């Protein structure tokens, strides 16, 4: 009886039905970014010119729009199956959208280029600016891993490739080994990038950067004009370490001459000698970079000799005076005797 009363009474279920009706009639609009799919033989053909993703704006019942947004259970695609090699303007189509939804795809059309697909392996070259190395430093054999990459693209683009290269950017004045992942590029004869796909897209590049060194003894040599020829040189440093390229170090013997300029020296003095300048930039640098040199002119010895001579002269004069006095005394005594 209660069920009969509930069903037959006017207006009892009308509120619920009205609410459902209002919900279903509320519209909503949203824009989604969706991957664009290709319907084509991609193993045989290489297709370019299309975007990876497109935007679609859908509008319809709120619940349906929300469900579609959450599930994205529809596709946007290009049908290229019946198209020949070359360029084509193709409309983007959809499948799977509910018929109660309206939609607008942007862009509606795209221009694609269909070419025969080709895959080829290339060795990876390394191109970098050697001027970035610090003075005296040298780069060893470059290591690239992997040293070859697979290049895929239209056969016409593959033919344009002059070389596959990585261009590591070395910091200015680098003194240590360069070790980084670097992007791979396929270039034509003019150095422009070719539109192909590379696998892998980066490779590991290692460039050993070192400097050669050698320990040598030093010989202090007089340089410059001077009236004094009795110069002698002293330094606590007897050996130094020189650094440079392989060719520079090979050209250096077991000892090196260090010129000491005495043209402005008039007395005993000390000088700080820059070894790099003294060696005429034959090496990159030295350790230590400077040495202290004591320059002896021999003036102390000369002064001593002069003093000695003066003393001898004084003694001689005194001796002469004594002898004269002695003679005078003898003469007086002789006269007294005669008287």
TrEMBL record:
InterPro entries: c-di-AMP_regulator (IPR053154), YbbR (IPR012505). Residues 295-339 are annotated as: Disordered. It comes from the Bacteria. Residues 296-339 have a biased composition (Low complexity). PANTHER family: CDAA REGULATORY PROTEIN CDAR. This is YbbR. It comes from Companilactobacillus crustorum.
